[in-house]
Every structure is written in C-alpha cells, then in structure tokens.
Amino acid sequence: MNDEVRKWLIDILEAIAHIDIHLGGQRDFIVYQNNITIQRAVERELEIIGEATNRILKVNDTIAISNARRIVDLRNRVIHAYDAVDEVIVWSVVMKSLPVLRQEIESVLKEK
Fold this sequence. Notes:
The protein has 112 residues and is mainly alpha-helical. The protein has one domain. The protein is 78% helix and 0% strand. It is globular, with a radius of gyration of 14 Å.
C-alpha cells in the first residue's frame, strides 16, 4: 500500500472519531435531529470519508472496503443534493455502517 492510500485510510478513521466527538459520545437521535450544528458537523465528516474512499478507489480498487461505492454516493448526495439529505439515513449510517467501516479500515491498516 502506498503512502497516499495509508493517509486516506487514516483520514477515514479520524473522521469517524470526529463524528463520535461531535455526538458527545451519545447515540441519541433526538439530540442529533434537534441540533443543526451537530448535523452539519457529522455531514462534513461523512464528506471527508466519502472523498477519501473515492480517492482510494481511484488508486487501488482492491482494498477491502465494503459498500465503498455507497459511501462515495452518500458523499455526493450530501455535497450536491444538500437539500435532500435525509437525517434518518445519515443516522443509520452513523449507527450501523461506521462501526463496520472502522473495523475494515483498522484491519486493512494492520495487514499492510
């Protein structure tokens, strides 16, 4: 794995960690839903995750990131269709997909 890909993988892990910070360690949808600042911060971190994933795919599409295309698609939706971002979908990604992504990235970094 080249240094660029390693950096982007670390960027993904950092963005996931920052989402945890933005949420204050809580997993409360009502708090998220009622706080536009938290929503925008989480969306920004998802943009970073999607952009890093997109860059990785362009350099090495064999890296084991499940749902990589969907991650990039979410990034594109948040950036380009900002007025159609569904907070329920974003919350589902935070709760279900990010823990899996974190494990996958950590595994890839350990292997290489």
